[in-house]
Specification:
InterPro entries: EpsH-like, Exo/Archaeosortase_dom, Exosortase, Methanolan_biosynth_EpsI. Helix 2 (about 15-30) runs antiparallel to helix 6, helix 5 (about 80-95) packs antiparallel against helix 6 (about 100-120) and helix 5 (about 80-95) runs parallel beside helix 14. This protein has 17 helices and 13 strands. It has 3 domains: about 5-140 and about 305-325, no CATH class; about 145-275, no CATH class; about 330-500, Protein Transport Mog1p, Chain A. The protein is an alpha+beta fold and about 500 residues long. The strands form 3 sheets. Strands 5, 6, 7, 8, 9, 10, 11 and 12 form an 8-stranded antiparallel beta sheet that branches. A 3-stranded antiparallel beta sheet has the order 1-2-3, with helices on one face.
């Protein structure tokens, strides 16, 4: 596109570009907490997603360029706002339940449906590849790290054996005479894999390659990126061995990796060029006439209404989260159980679950089914990413000390589970469940659903409730007594009352 023609196009499409930029800016502000979580990942240099800002800028550039090259006038679609509302609900669920990846994935989809609603389906379909390119900047690819790390270790082990270097491989650690070299998670090559595939996707979009050639470019990018990373790690192992672990690369090799990746781009670009040369579009692009403009009259009123409707729908989910957010205070809760017996806070206990991030711990001592027991409640008045009831690092006890005994059938069909734990040689029998807004479950997925629903009532708390029995030997006798007295267990859990002393629902 010549400079004069480009200037003319910008002037004729200025109102569309400004509107689109405004909607993007509004979406960033409305969903700022989630964008900020992406920033936190993108800002970590030399990590797997440090290319995030670069991809975001490239996608934004190609989006605006697509607007300039689009010959038809905008055709707002009111049907697309339903997609915005649905995706806003998905984002709301992700934010309310600390399922951050779900909220992050909703962001580019929300932007795409906003474009669909303002500019029409035809233009929205044409920029779908940009949506897919942006996914390379979202931290959902970490699942590949163990696989790539294992393959890298295997390749390096094979290379070391060829040279006859004395080395002992223990998992991801390589023991050489001068020390130990570890193939860390950052050495798996995920960052090079993502960068190479993002570049392949951008190249394919720019040159309008068909699906077959786009996949071929992705395969070439993957192969070159992985081989380049294998060579990088292999060289570092050789340097460590022959320098007796004294070379500076043993302590800092990030720049070395990117230099090697830059060299790998040369053959990658050459192969991409060969793939492009075989494409039908490349062979006919020079002779293809410029499509005529098909500008149609668009009512300013219709366009303004569509933009305002999009902004309103974008604001619904953040406003709902903000309106229903509760500032919990530990001091504003009172916990009681059977016959109104209050649970004490900050009491010393011999054992407690290996949960983290809870705001308060309550306990109560008393007889249940003729056995001395202790009721413990780990209360979460507020939850945030990493400070939540359902979290991968939250365990009743380490796996080697815990024996799950299945569901416990109380009279009221209350979802409870039974387990035995060995702590310091003391056997304990546990009856436990999650309590979210007064409803019990032992399923992590159900707990997340209940956590989302609790957003809309005045009981936003979450808690782990555990009834603990100290065993004389292996808990067989205690288990038999408890199984014979389900009604007494049911009473303890059903009469547990976690009560907010004062309303605390307010705007943050």
């Amino acid at each position: 596109m010549h400079i004069r023609a480009l200037t003319s196009e910008i002037k004729s499409k200025a109102w569309v570009l400004v509107t689109l930029l405004g909607v993007v800016a509004f979406a960033v502000l409305a969903y700022w907490p989630t964008w900020q979580s992406l920033h936190n990942v993108w800002a970590m240099l030399d990590q797997s997603y440090s290319h995030g800002y670069l991809i975001a800028l490239v996608v934004l550039y190609w989006l605006f360029k697509a607007v300039l090259q689009y010959q038809a006038s905008p055709k707002p679609s009111y049907v697309a706002v339903l997609g915005i509302i649905a995706l806003g609900g998905l984002w709301l669920f992700g934010e309310a339940t600390q399922t951050l990846l779900l909220a992050q994935l909703a962001l580019p989809c929300l932007l795409w449906f906003s474009i669909f609603a303002i500019l029409g389906l035809r233009f929205a379909v044409s920029v779908v590849p940009l949506l897919l390119i942006f996914i390379f900047a979202i931290p959902l690819w970490d699942i590949l790290t163990p696989i790539l790390r294992g393959i890298t270790t295997y390749v390096v082990q094979f290379g070391v054996s060829i040279l006859g270097i004395p080395a002992y491989f223990d998992g991801f650690k390589i023991e050489v005479p001068a020390g130990v070299i570890e193939i860390a998670s950052s050495c798996a090559g995920l960052n090079y894999f993502l960068m190479a595939n993002a570049f392949a996707a951008i190249y394919s979009y720019q040159n309008q390659l068909d699906t077959k050639r786009t996949i071929l470019c992705a395969l070439v990018a993957t192969a070159i990126a992985l081989v380049g990373n294998w060579v990088r790690v292999y060289i570092l192992v050789l340097v460590g061995y022959y320098s007796n672990m004294t070379h500076s690369l043993m302590h800092s090799h990030a720049n070395f990796g990117w230099i090697l990746f830059g060299l790998c781009m040369v053959p990658m670009l050459y192969v991409f060029g060969r793939i492009y040369a075989t494409s039908t579009w490349a062979q006919s692009a020079a002779d293809e006439p410029t499509p005529p403009k098909t500008q149609a009259d668009l009512s300013p009123k219709t366009f303004i209404i569509s933009v305002l409707l999009v902004c309103f729908c974008l604001a619904l989910a953040p406003a709902t989260l903000h309106w229903n957010s509760v500032k919990g205070d530990v001091a504003s809760y009172e916990v009681s159980t059977i016959n109104g017996a209050k649970l004490s806070q900050y009491s010393a206990v011999a054992w407690r679950p290996a949960f983290k991030g809870y705001d308060a711990h309550y306990s109560w001592l008393g007889p249940v089914a003729g056995l001395q027991s202790q009721l413990q409640v780990l209360l979460y008045t507020q939850q945030a990413q990493g400070k939540e009831l359902i979290y991968y690092d939250n365990l009743l006890a380490p796996a080697h000390n815990l024996k799950k005994l299945g569901d416990f059938n109380a009279n009221g069909n209350m979802p409870l589970a039974m387990a035995a734990v060995n702590s310091g040689g003391q056997q304990r029998l546990l009856i436990w469940s999650y309590n979210l807004g007064g409803k019990y479950t032992t399923s992590p997925i159900s707990a997340k659903l209940l956590q989302f629903l609790s957003l809309f009532n005045q009981q936003p708390y979450a808690a782990l409730v555990v009834l603990v029995f100290d065993c004389q030997t292996n808990c067989t006798q205690e288990q038999a007594v408890i199984n014979a007295s389900p009604s007494e267990i049911d009473v303890i859990f059903s009469q547990l009352n976690i009560k907010a002393l004062a309303p605390s629902n307010k705007w943050k």
